[in-house]
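thought: fold this chain, then report.
action: predict
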Amino acid sequence: MAEVARLATAIADRILEQNAAGTTIPPEQFTMLVRAARMLLDNGAPWPPSVEIVLMEVARRIGQAEAAPDVGPAATEGDDVVGHLTQALNAMRRP
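observation:
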């Protein structure tokens, strides 16, 4: 599980870096992060801090979008998890 945690951290860190640079986050990266996080969870291993930051922020933003479905174009793309991830990370980096 240590190797899975290391890889999940690397993916989460990369996602955070890409967001900070304003580049698109490939859906495959997010899928890999979710799978690694799930594996850690299924084996009772804690999420590394950067993994938890990314996933909890996405979950929070998805919850907000679902609670206020009439807030604009982002709400109409509710099934686009990568879109939610990008929005959540953009919000995180704003002062």
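thought: worth noting. The chain has one domain: 2-93.
final: tokens above.
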